[in-house]
Amino acid sequence: MKACIRGAAVALTALSTAFALSSCDSGTANDSEGGNGPQIALLLPDSTTARWETEDRPLLEKKIMELCADCTIQHANAKNDVALQQEQMDSMITKGVDAIVLVAVDARTLGPSVTSATEANIPVIAYDRLSQGPISGYVSFDGVEVGKLQGRALLKAMGDNGASRQIVMMNGDPTDPNAVSFKEGALSVLSGRVKIGKEYDTIQWRPENANMNMSGALAALGVGNIQGVYAANDGLAAGSISALKANKVDPLPPVTGQDAELGAVHRIVAGDQYMTVYKPFGPEASAGAAMAVAAANRTSLQEIAKDKVRTSSGKTVPAVLLTPVSVTVANIKDTLVKDGFYTTREICIPRLEAACSRAGLT
User: Fold this and answer.
1) CA-to-CA distance for 178 and 143, rounded, in angstroms?
2) Which of 79, 96, 134, 176 is most buried (most C-beta within 10 Å)?
3) Which domains, ranges and CATH numbers included, belong to the chain?
4) Residue 13: is its pLDDT beyond 50?
């Protein structure tokens, strides 16, 4: 299918308003909008991490429709099920969609599906996670830098005596290439400066797995012997903090995070979580949408993607790599609130009124 797009280039600026769209509760694809133009598939990995359905999906859909009013968007969520996402990929290939935006549940396992799509002349844009296989483009944040921001923040929170401090590392899912990059960045900062008492890879990024692992770390190391927690994202931070509180750890050690989930911001204001990494979803979605529309129309990605990334096969493809931001209680107002990501009303719920006042948010 062919359609006129309203310009292939995209300004990578944050979108101030996220449209509230209902999430897909089944494994089947849902059509959004509709027209005689290209069909673009949007395949998300799970509902465990809030950002996919509440931030990325509505932003991607909005931007795609701005660029291509007669496009049809077909959405499906894999619910953390690799086999289901493979079926969804097969379904989109059979339907003959014009482009696929893929957030892979398991980058390695989805590689053959990406190959099948490419063989069917369907370009695949890897979104946020670098899938294996012959992708046509990639948009994400610098994962190594994310880990470095987390590591630096943890060292700062623990103070000058970091070398004598013991931490627990709650890494993400090892099948997610981003988790590998986060860990690499964090270790580049932390190695030799702290003692890593326990380290876990958290399958499927599940907070309940982090909770269980943290309980195990406390049993092995002792309640008073954990001076910091490296948690790769906010969900793992939540699971870890819950276990720390259940075991009556007081005061709580500094805990890192990522994704700037509202619950994490509440925990930061309350003093339960030390930091999160803010990755403005607007610019990422804008770039991903522009790449998808250009790919669906078989036009060049070079005007959109000024960076390059090397895939698992050694091929270099166009990429947009954005810069993450470290957020603590000290700069919530100058980052999340200033960008319109959250309002002070959303952050300063009744139980946090006093804490918000101390933080200068009210």
Assistant:
1) 6
2) 176
3) 30-141+279-322 (3.40.50.2300), 143-278+326-358 (3.40.50.2300)
4) no
